[in-house]
Amino acid sequence: MPSAVSLRRAARETVSGLPREFWWLWTSTLVNRLGAFVATFMVLWITLDLGGSAFYAGLVVSLHGLGGVLSSLGGGVMADRVGRRPTMLLAQLSTAASVAVLAFMRDPVAIAAVAFVVGMASNASRPAVQAMMADIVPEKDRVRAFSLNYWAINLGFAVSSTAAGFVAEVSYRAGFLVEAGMTLVCALVVFLKVPESRPPSAGKDGDGAADSVGLGTVLRDRRFMSLVGLSFLVALIFQQGFVGLPVAMGEAGFTPADYGLAVALNGVLIVALQIPVTRFIEHRNPKRLLVISSLLAGYGFGLTAFAGSVGVFALTVCVWTLAEIVNAPTQTGLVVRLSPAQGRGRYQGMYTMSWSVAALVAPLMSGFVIDRYGADWLWGLCAVVGTAAGLGYGALMRRLPGEEPVPAEVARQAGPADEGATPSDLPRQAAPGDTPADRRNPSVH
């Protein structure tokens, strides 16, 4: 057993050396997730409190997710053109206002419209948060930084889900207003303590640098778009823990409490293991980490086909949760490494969108497969998708040796005006062990 001294030393090493600005941003993320209510309890609010149908509840949730898909790219563009800090403030203030308005809606059309706005506003800040972390944290510390941020997201979600359940017993409206208030606190932290971090060259008017990396540049970046596609596949798998698994367990005769007990392990394990596992993987080959985590995710869900008790279901949750713990910071770090400093917002927006689209597709996929072929086919499909993603990461990383010359197009875009940029700010290859969100559509933020 490790001694108390070694545990204190490990904890100190985990949190030391990161910029003060990062910790304020981390605090903002934690506060934001502590106030989460709408996304978690929207279906229950509509069906139990308002008396709406399951179909209508699903439609509203889909519109909320669609808003997030659209704002992923918009938030990324704003982060590059307007700045990280203004984008976060606008998104957080808009989220607080729209959530407060949603609390008083009763008309079905109005609820659907405002839910769409809430989805747009709440997702718009995620590319800016990820881009700012990449801006302010040195490259060697990014794996720790992204992991700590992911830990804050899950800690906040675990606490808020428990507390919000008690709030919902009293008043759903109160829960919405609590989220609006916490989001305002989050915006206040950003306004008072978080400085702008956008690279200077990206903000000079008249030199074209601000628009040097457009969405077209991102879409033409075949390496990065390959990563986005692989991220989508992995996200499809992880989403099944919250869309396919409860349906399958229900059809197998298990109660909602059984599902809650099994899936609760996901949050508990992430809070308990994210930091120590990150210390273990921090300087290891990212290619192996991404391949192994994809296989663990696919076959972790694949094993669900053999589950006949809550204990076995819980065991499968442990397997794919370990995959999530390894994949999240590693993949986020690779996104940063492949993103030019001037386009980090757009690149992060495209990456965030892969998770948002997966959140829309996963319920449709799981419902179709379970209804047409049965749950076992869904878990077998997860294993196939995980294998395909693992092979894809292996091929992608094989084409990314330790270092590669900066492409001429990017070099021209950076130009002589990019005096503050370093080679690490430009897209380059991920060296082994040299890479660092919101599993519930992360990103983030």
TrEMBL record:
<keyword id="KW-0813">Transport</keyword>
<dbReference type="InterPro" id="IPR020846">
    <property type="entry name" value="MFS_dom"/>
</dbReference>
<feature type="compositionally biased region" description="Basic and acidic residues">
    <location>
        <begin position="436"/>
        <end position="445"/>
    </location>
</feature>
<feature type="transmembrane region" description="Helical">
    <location>
        <begin position="227"/>
        <end position="247"/>
    </location>
</feature>
<feature type="transmembrane region" description="Helical">
    <location>
        <begin position="350"/>
        <end position="370"/>
    </location>
</feature>
<dbReference type="Pfam" id="PF07690">
    <property type="entry name" value="MFS_1"/>
</dbReference>
<protein>
    <submittedName>
        <fullName>MFS transporter</fullName>
    </submittedName>
</protein>
<keyword id="KW-1003">Cell membrane</keyword>
<dbReference type="InterPro" id="IPR011701">
    <property type="entry name" value="MFS"/>
</dbReference>
<feature type="region of interest" description="Disordered">
    <location>
        <begin position="406"/>
        <end position="445"/>
    </location>
</feature>
<feature type="transmembrane region" description="Helical">
    <location>
        <begin position="54"/>
        <end position="75"/>
    </location>
</feature>
<dbReference type="GO" id="GO:0022857">
    <property type="term" value="F:transmembrane transporter activity"/>
</dbReference>
<keyword id="KW-1133">Transmembrane helix</keyword>
<dbReference type="InterPro" id="IPR005829">
    <property type="entry name" value="Sugar_transporter_CS"/>
</dbReference>
<feature type="domain" description="Major facilitator superfamily (MFS) profile">
    <location>
        <begin position="21"/>
        <end position="398"/>
    </location>
</feature>
<feature type="transmembrane region" description="Helical">
    <location>
        <begin position="150"/>
        <end position="168"/>
    </location>
</feature>
<feature type="transmembrane region" description="Helical">
    <location>
        <begin position="111"/>
        <end position="129"/>
    </location>
</feature>
<feature type="transmembrane region" description="Helical">
    <location>
        <begin position="376"/>
        <end position="396"/>
    </location>
</feature>
<dbReference type="InterPro" id="IPR036259">
    <property type="entry name" value="MFS_trans_sf"/>
</dbReference>
<feature type="transmembrane region" description="Helical">
    <location>
        <begin position="174"/>
        <end position="194"/>
    </location>
</feature>
<keyword id="KW-0812">Transmembrane</keyword>
<dbReference type="GO" id="GO:0005886">
    <property type="term" value="C:plasma membrane"/>
</dbReference>
<keyword id="KW-0472">Membrane</keyword>
<feature type="transmembrane region" description="Helical">
    <location>
        <begin position="87"/>
        <end position="105"/>
    </location>
</feature>
<feature type="transmembrane region" description="Helical">
    <location>
        <begin position="259"/>
        <end position="277"/>
    </location>
</feature>
<feature type="transmembrane region" description="Helical">
    <location>
        <begin position="21"/>
        <end position="48"/>
    </location>
</feature>
<dbReference type="InterPro" id="IPR050171">
    <property type="entry name" value="MFS_Transporters"/>
</dbReference>
